[in-house]
Amino acid sequence: MMNKLKLGLPAGSLQNTTLEIFKKAGYNIQIGERSYYPYIDDEEIDCILMRAQEIPKYVEDQVLDVGLTGKDWITETGADVQELADLNYSKRGLRPVRLVLAVPQDSPITKVEDLDGKRIATELVETTRKFMQGKGLKASVSFSWGATEVKPPLLADAIAELTETGRSLKANYLRIIETILVSTPRVIMNHKSFEDPWKKKKVDRMITLLRGALMAEQKVMLKMNVHSDNLEKVLKLLPALRKPTISNLCDDDWVAVESVVDERKVRTLICELQDAGAEGILEFPMNKIIP
Length: 291
Prior knowledge:
The chain is an alpha/beta fold. It contains 9 helices and 16 strands. The strands form 4 sheets. A 5-stranded mixed sheet has the order 4-1-5-12-6.
């Protein structure tokens, strides 16, 4: 009988980004219409698509061997699971989300202590309540079924809401007064599956590929030809994981140089390399980087 790994993938806001990262990691996952059981091109893995909120408990209860969910929902559910990896991405890119306390712009509340005895609306009730208790404060924390941003000031004095950029809060005339939690997606396993050598090795290899895909998201490969007279100037400009690769060309006076660089810096760097004497500069996207 073939070994099987039951993998829970988050539906909703994290779904598309998660599938893109798995694809770059080498896993082709296809989701049919209204299907909760995606196809994955690895016959040793069975995928289940579900809300990120549900994944921690299903992993803890051994319904799933492994799952991807946010740190916020691991904290909120109090699930007893093994956290194996922190994957720094969100629904819009490579940044964590924050659970923040926010109040109306014209509210007299300026700090978390001002919420003592006040009303807070949120989806993450337990996390918010524990945060307030940790500050020695009492507040009425109630569950919000959605549209949390519109609750203040009539239905709540403040909200605890997940945000990446804060733009939605500003658009609803809210201002942030405190960060409760910084959350990123985590790979989690139940304790029994963690002790299974085959499952643990399977997940470890998956994590290696996912981390490699995430690292590659922020990097590009640059290749260029450089005359020996300009090589020192060019090398001073080039960062690399270790050192740039230098290869001889047919012309003894020229070399080919390769280097992995931050994508954020490449726009400026290419022009600087050209000024330093580099020619035939090529930029390549990358799928994975395994350090």
